[in-house]
Amino acid sequence: MKIELPNHNTFLHVTDNSNECDASSIFVLTKLNAMYEQSARDHGCTHIISPKACLDLLGIRDAIKIIGITGTNGKTTTAAAIYSILLDLGKKVGLQGTRGCFINDHRIEEKSLTTPPILQTIHNLKLAVEAGCEYFVMEVSSHAIVQNRIDGIAFALKILTNVTQDHLDFHKTIDEYIAVKSRFFDDESLKLINKDESKIRFNRTNAMSYGIEHPATYKILAYSLKEGISAAVAKIEKVYEFESPLHGFFNLYNLLAAISAVDMLGVAPMESICEALEHFGGVEGRMEVVSQDPLVIVDFAHTPDGMEKVLDSMKERDLVVVFGAGGDRDRTKRPKMGAMAQRYAKKIVVTSDNPRSEDPQSIITEILAGMNHHESLHVEVDRHEAIEKALRMQAPNEVLLILGKGDETYQEIKGKKYPFDDRSVVRELIAQWAKQK
C-alpha cells in the first residue's frame, strides 16, 4: 500500500512495503512488516515512522471522529446503521468494514478484510477527510486487534456488540478470544457496551451501556417484532420510540446500539436520531428477503450463535434451512451449528459453504455429528443443487433460510474463488420454473 503525498520536505510517498521504498520514501513500521525494516533501509529509506506518526503527518488524528465497532456478530449491521443515520442527519461520513469502504454514500473500495492493514485504513481516512467527512465508522475484528492493525488510531467512540464463539482456529480458546476483545476496551476512551453481554471486561471510565434484559444507559422498555421492529427506549428518565423494517430480535440490539452511539456523539436530539433510523433498510446478505413468494431469506450467519439469532427470530414460522460450514476455520463449531439448525428447522439441507482447502464431505460429516438423523435431514454437497432441493421441498407456508454466505458472490474451493451467489441462484431457479408453468 502506498499513499502519494504532495511534495512534503522532499518525501513523495508513504508506504508499508519495503520494496516500494527509496530515499524519498517514508516507511510505516507495523507489527506485520517489522521484519522488513532493514529491507526498507537497504532500499535507501531513512525515514521510518509509526502509524500514529503517519496519522499526524497526514493531519488525520484531529480532523475526523472515528467510531470503532467490535463483537462476534452485529458489527456490519450496526456500523451500517450508524453510517445511514449520520448521512440522513446531513453529516458527511465514511464507512469501512466487511462490505468495503464508502464515503458520503459512494463506494470507493470493494469488499475486503473486516479491518484492513493500518495503512489501507489510513488511506481511507485520508480520502474521508479530503471529502469533508466529520465521522468515520469502522468494523474492528479480533484479528486486527491482535495484529495491531488499529495501531495509532484514536477512537472517538468504541462499541461492543457481543462475544460468542468464533475464530477459535486463530485464537485457540474462547478465553483468549474474550481477552482480545476486552483489550479494545481497556483504555479511558468513550465506550458503549452491551450490558447484556457478561463476558467482556472493560475500563468503566467513560463507559455507557445499552441493553434489553439488564439496566442500562439506553434501555429497551417494550418492543414488537411483528412486521419489522418497533420499540421504546429509555434514556435516563425520557422515553423515545423508533421503528424499522428490519427483522429479528438480534437486530433490535444492533439498532439500539446505533441509536445510542449517534446520541453519545452529540449529533442530534434523540427524536431526530430515531426518525432517521426508520430510513435504514438493512444490509445486503443480512436477513435479505430474496423472494416473497415463496419466502426466501439469505443471511450471513456462520456461527452457532449467529444461526441461533437468525433462527430464533423466525421461530414462529415453519423453517427450511440450507447451511454448511467454512473450511480451514474453527472445527469445533460445526456440530454445534448442526444441532442449532435441528433445534429450530422443520427441514434441513446440509451442504458446502466455502470449503477452501478442506474436503467438503468431511466438513459435512463433522456438522452431522451434532445432529440426529431423520427423514427431514438431507445432505447435498453441491450448494446449487442443495438450494434447488430446498426450494422444491418448501411448502407454501414455510420460510426458506439460506445461511452462511450472505451477499458473497463466490465460493472458495482449493484456493480458487468461483462465481456463486445464493441470491442469484434462488432468483434464477424461481424465474426458470415460472416460465415452465
Description:
With 437 residues, this protein is of the alpha/beta class. It folds into 3 domains: 2-49, no CATH class; 65-277, Mur-like, catalytic domain (UDP-N-acetylmuramoyl-L-alanine:D-glutamate ligase), CATH 3.40.1190.10; 288-436, Mur ligase, C-terminal domain (Protein-Tyrosine Phosphatase, Chain A), CATH 3.90.190. 32% of the residues lie in helices and 26% in strands. The chain contains 14 helices and 23 strands. The chain has helices spanning 37-42, 51-57, 75-88, 118-130, 142-146, 168-171, 174-183, 249-264, 270-277, 304-313, 333-344, 360-368, 383-393, 422-436; strands at residues 2-8, 11-15, 25-28, 47-49, 65-70, 93-97, 100-103, 106-109, 135-139, 155-160, 191-194, 207-211, 218-224, 229-235, 238-244, 288-291, 296-299, 318-323, 347-350, 377-379, 398-403, 410-413, 416-419. Strands 8-7-6-9-5-10-11-12-13-14-15 form an 11-stranded mixed β-sheet, sandwiched between helices. A 6-stranded mixed β-sheet has the order 16-17-21-18-19-20, sandwiched between helices. Strand 7 (100-103) and strand 8 (106-109) form a beta hairpin. Helix 3 (75-88) crosses helix 8 (249-264), helix 8 packs across helix 9 (270-277) and helix 13 (383-393) crosses helix 14. The longest helix has 16 residues, at 249-264. It is globular, with a radius of gyration of 23 Å.
